[in-house]
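Our consortium's second objective concerns turning raw sequence data into structural hypotheses that experimental partners can test. To show how far this objective has progressed, the report includes one record in full. It was chosen at random from the queue rather than selected for favorable results. The single chain below, 616 residues long, was entered without modification.
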Amino acid sequence: MEMIFCYPPFVMAAQSPEIDQLFRLRHSLAHVLAEAVQRLWPDTQITIGPPIDTGCYYDFLFTEPLTDADLPKIEKEMKKIIYQGQTFRVDTLSVADAKKFWSKRGQRFKVELIEDLEKNENVREVTHHTLIGPKGEDAFVDLCRGGHVENTKDIPVDAFKLTNLAGAYWRGDEKREQLTRVYVAAFGSKKDLDAYLLQQEEAKKRDHRKIGKEMDLFAFSEKVGPGLPLWTPRGTIIVDAIETLGKEMEEKGGYQRVRTPHIAKGKLYAQTGHLAHYKTSMFPPMKLDGEEEYYLKPMNCPHHHEIFASTPKSYRDLPVRLAEYGHCYRYEDSGTLFGLMRVRSLCMNDAHIYVSEEQFEQEFNAVIDLYIEYFRIFNINKYVMRLSLHDAQELGKKYVDAPELWLRTEDMVRTAMKKKNVNFIEVPNEAAFYGPKIDVQIWSAIGREFTLATNQVDFDVPGKMGLHYTDRDGSAKVPLCIHRAPLSTHERLVGFLIEHFAGHFPLWLAPVQAAVLPVSTANEEYACEVATQLLNAGIRIDYMNAEESLGKRIRAGETGRIPYLLVLGDREQAERSVAVRNVRTKNQVTVPLQEFVERTVKDIKERRLEKAFGEE
């Protein structure tokens, strides 16, 4: 069950942002969608329908279930509306009149939205945007802030398509009504739409949930609980390989490894501010007889702060870099859970770097360098750094109330990035509650966007926790803390990599690196010898004996995305060679056994992206 929540786009605003034409097209199309639905199912309850990056959607409460088979019918009705050349009229209503308007029509969700605006934001007026039908009648009315095309004929009928249905709880609350969300893909031209739909088809083929099952990498169990992934032996190999890489890189970077428990007293999270700012994302407390409340840890930083504080520090000890693959737990609504991408149990590539102000720039940029090296290793060619800033209106609520420190640390990050010539964009009102951060957006091989890494600056919590070091002049100074997670979590990174590589992992990361396939039982003895030599060289293998047909075994190896299938027949046995079938390219080459072993071991050690055999 997917839940995406966005702001109600119908509040009167003194100053509206400039809205581009594609936004107007998509926004208008959401109204056309709702009009078409109400034409076909007049008793439908309407809620909200915002434009999104790929088109728009609208959430409805139907009196009868809607199915995918209904989408072509809705799309046909939408095109009729577009061909009619309907236009928009804007009306301003008082809150009282707007509530009467929607109450009379039985649209209770609209009434609720207006009541909330009146209560929470002191709104006194709202706007209605009405589509005018071919005879001058009011064809469809909605609450809306605006931003539409002049005429529905401005919407190209060959540049949109209804793509799918999804479930959505009203207001993102699983205790409220379950709505039906209708998605529309919409672009400025048929060419752009076709390119997007082609990408979506490829994305379906690369869905990490589908490939993960085919490769037997992870599982979910209702008995264990939603959002709690179980790593199978093969999936664990991938996780361990990533963790080994992280530990190697961190050792080179001067990090010290630590371990922390999975729970802590509530007063720890109260002191850091997590209970005040993050409690809704934490699991409920555990109350033990005669003891205080304990919580599952939502992140590792409070524990690392306590490690830093456990021994006296001086300026000579800084920077202190504490790293951990720490297990954390976050309460996510069941409707938001999505494979490995959104889970409740996560193992984070976490570290906290305690620095003086003078050391900040060098350490911050060293983390950026680490990101870029990881991107090279995983062949991530497209990424963008987002500098997430605070909003002064949210101080004391969403963010700690320290305006001067916010401006100062934001400028420190901005200056460090500019000096390093790192491309970045600035995004308001998305900072962590304790300081600005860099979020790294990456794109997979087929252009799907993911939020992966984060690099955060904390100017607040170290002081709250009483962290300090003795400076050169003998005074006590509070360190800055850099929170960084360049490899995100095991769960999100593996999910991304499955889709990025379509399951065809680089050789060093593949759970099974080669499969041994004797053509017949007569070749079993040589095949066993080959298998033994590969295992002794540290190559992960699967032995597929000759009980089943060769074709069936090859198909099994391809489904499992095993990089190399070594086919061993009479010729290979006589020549002491191996016929290497590259599963990704389907090319096959025959090479001496010893050459295969030596080159494969070298490729694994060097973590080469390219497979040596069958790529030429």
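The partners drew two points from this record. The mean pLDDT is 91. The chain has three domains: 21-202, 213-501, 514-606. Both points have been shared with the crystallography group to help prioritize constructs.
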